[in-house]
Amino acid sequence: MVSLEQASAWRPPVAGVTEVFxxxxxxHAYPMHVHDTWTLLIVDDGAVxxxxxxxxxxxxxxxxxxxxxxxxxxxxxxxxxxxxxxVLYLDTTQLDESLTGSAVDGPDLMDPVLRRRVGQLxxxxxxxxxxxxxxxxxxxxxERLRGHLSDREVLGRARPTPGRGVAQQLRDLLDERLLEAxxxxxxxxxxxxxxxxLVRAFSAAFGIAPHQxxxxxxxxxxxxxxxxxxxPGDVAGAAGFYDQSHLARHFKRVVxxxxxxxxxxxHRPGS
Length: 271
Prior knowledge:
Elements: E1 6-10, E2 17-25, E3 30-33, E4 38-46, E5 48-52, E6 55-58, E7 64-67, E8 73-77, E9 83-90, H1 100-105, E10 108-109, H2 112-125, H3 131-154, H4 165-176, H5 184-191, H6 195-206, H7 210-227, H8 232-238, H9 244-255, H10 259-265
Antiparallel strand pairs: 1-2, 2-9, 3-8, 4-7, 4-9, 5-6, 5-8, 7-10
Helix pairs in contact: 2-3, 4-6, 7-9, 8-9
């Protein structure tokens, strides 16, 4: 049977957008992972079921979903026919991380105007030469998103971002040494905490195990290197993986396609 799993990705020449990702998945289920960017998601067909900060969420019809950076989430098809989605990864120059708690409280926005604008932005990003239009549409979108998130803060529904103490120290250390083969014992010595306590504290604070956090951050780095045009064979070591097989195994689990297919799908629209 021919696989219906399809994906394409590219980095547009528009400040603030680190990646555009379009996918049609029928069976792929994302494991728990994180991004260091904001994930702005619309589903064009089917639906996605996902967990965010230990709460089950979904993408009903005409919803815009906004997932904040560094908050673990997963995802799987909510219908037998899977889903088609369009995703924009926005860096923190577009939305400040202080809005994370508001986004966690309500990531799925029922806003027809916002959804239409996101679709228009995707259309502009698909054509070289339309960067000024894309920048203009992105400005309107981020303003509307900030309005949604700020309104929740005023109403007192926002939660502070979890994580402090040894858990935060471990996350800072993992970020600092992302490309190193850091062992748990080494981390425990540097933080002056028992290894088991570190794992439990990190998992409790962030909702993801330390090794899952490192893997997903490395996969994100691999995506960027592939979009830069680096060959998959060179990306494994540059992203902190042991070898190409190690990269391929984890990349497929997190992204839904192999590094090779992802690299082939990467293109410059209109070029």
